[in-house]
Every structure is written in structure tokens, then in C-alpha cells.
Amino acid sequence: MSTETLAKPLTGRVAVVTGASSGIGEASAEHLARLGARVAVLARRADRLRELVARIEEHGGTALPIAVDVTDAAAVRSAADRVAAELGDADLLFNNAGVMLPAPIEELAADQWQRQIDLNITGLMNVIGAFTPQLVKAAGERGVADLINTSSIAAQNIFPTFAVYSGTKAYVSHLSRHLRAELGAKNVRVSALEPGIVGTELQSHVTDDGALQWLEGSKETMDWLTPQDVAETVGFIATLPPRANLQQVTIMPTGQPS
Ligand code: NDP
């Protein structure tokens, strides 16, 4: 095996990362680029994507910024066309954009319910719809492709006031298991990534006082994960031998019990 292959095991691969303008997506895009992948970075904030691309290019990587709202299915399809035209067919999709807006159910915060459903479910599906043809084609040609969906431990565990968010993430995990059954035979590995608490901008969108206090209090009993911790997990999933598929990966702060 050449030194290049060892140092940059994703050389020749084309990765797409959604939610790449901050947090887990941003760190993962940089990490996948360091591992040798050409990376398309998707989110709404074009300025943040430009800064990310500049950093990746500074380290000799290749990245394509695409400012897109993933809840807009037509815009995501156009983004997929651009990826194929400018980088080649995607063979690694990190489907990661998401939002968490906890609130007691009796507050009837229907606008927040809708935002979570629109992004965490419909947006996720728009991205799957736009890129699955490329993943299947690339897997046929190159022998492997990856679809990594960001779920959460909220998909499995019970957090009062997080019901709607948790419901969207349970959708992501269960969907991922089903997609394995369809896509695995076509050499597309499907993984659900379920992190515990990671320090990102996710918490800055929370407005519910109870949830904010719980999050703040948790810092006294644990060191939150960093986006880099999760990015390295994404890299690990994608660099396994083609026959091996981590179908569900839970990464927790060591001090977070559940
Ligand atoms: P961030 O808030 O830092 O990142 C969210 C990303 O999603 C941003 O890049 C944001 O960019 C993008 N985004 C939001 N809305 C849209 C949209 N409509 N179209 C396109 N992109 C959008 O949070 P995290 O990095 O923490 O979150 C990443 C994923 O990890 C989410 O799915 C989250 O649910 C999950 N997760 C996070 C945990 C945590 O503790 N942080 C724990 C478990 C799971 P922009 O605003 O520029 O569009």
C-alpha cells in the first residue's frame, strides 16, 4: 500500500456534507478533505462555506461550496447536478443538517415542530432523493459508497420536552436500517450516527428555559463531545473495508449516562 493511500485513504472519493457551515458538518468536511476526499459543502450560509473552503484549500484539499436550503427539493436536485458536473458522482453522503428545538408539548409550539420536521425529516429525504442515484452508480463503478445519516441518542432514549426532535431522529435511525436492506446489496453502506451531547451551534437555537438549564447543568457532570470527535468517527466509518458497515454508531461523552 502506498504512503498516499495510507495517509489519505479517501483519495478519489467524492463526499457531500450537509450542515457544513458549523458544528459537526463543518468539522467533518474538513476531516474528510484531510483524508483525501473532494468535498461538496452544503448549507444556507454562503459566507461560512467560503471560509471553510478556503481552509480546506489552504491544506491542499478540494472543496465546492453550494449555498442551499435542503428543505427546497428542487434546489437540492440542482446542487446534486452541480456536484456530479464539477466533482464527479458522490460516493459519500454525510446527511447531517438538523435543528433541535425542545419545548413542553402543551406549549403547542407548532412552528417549532414544523421547523424540525421540515429539516430533520423532509430535508434529509430531499438530500437522499437527490443523491441516491449517484451513490448507487458510484458504488457500482468503485465498489463502495457511504450514506451516513446524522441521528441522535434522542432516537433511542427518553428526554422530556424533546419529544418532537426525538421523533424526527427515531425516523432517521429507523429509515437508515431499512435503507441498508435495499442499498447494501448495491454496495452502498448505510449508517445511522447517534451522538450524545456535542458542543455546537445546535444549543444556541434552543429557547426553552428548562432545556437550557438542563443543558447548562450537564456541563458540570461531563465534558461535552467536540465536533472533531464526531468528525473522526465519520472518517472511521468511511474508511472501513468495503465489506464492513457500521449500521449504527453511538458516540457519547464519557460522563453522559444516557
Ligand atoms: P449546528 O447548528 O452547528 O449545525 C447545523 C447545520 O445545519 C448548520 O450548518 C446549518 O447551516 C445547517 N442547516 C440548518 N438549516 C438548514 C437548511 N434549511 N438547509 C441547509 N442547511 C441547514 O449543529 P450540529 O453540528 O450539532 O448538528 C448537526 C447534526 O447533528 C444535526 O442533525 C443534529 O440534530 C445532530 N446532533 C447534534 C447533537 C449535538 O449535541 N450537537 C447531538 C446529536 C445529534 P445554515 O444555518 O448555514 O444553513
UniProtKB/TrEMBL annotation:
Ranges for domain Ketoreductase: 13-217
One family name in Pfam for this protein: adh_short
Keyword annotations: Oxidoreductase
GO molecular function: oxidoreductase activity, acting on the CH-OH group of donors, NAD or NADP as acceptor
Gene3D superfamilies, per database record: NAD(P)-binding Rossmann-like Domain (3.40.50.720)
Xref: InterPro entries: KR_dom (IPR057326), NAD(P)-bd_dom_sf (IPR036291), Sc_DH/Rdtase_CS (IPR020904), SDR_fam (IPR002347)
PANTHER family: 5-KETO-D-GLUCONATE 5-REDUCTASE, ALCOHOL DEHYDROGENASE, PUTATIVE (AFU_ORTHOLOGUE AFUA_3G03445)-RELATED
Assigned protein family: Belongs to the short-chain dehydrogenases/reductases (SDR) family.
The protein's name in its UniProt record: SDR family oxidoreductase
Organism encoding this protein: Nonomuraea rhodomycinica
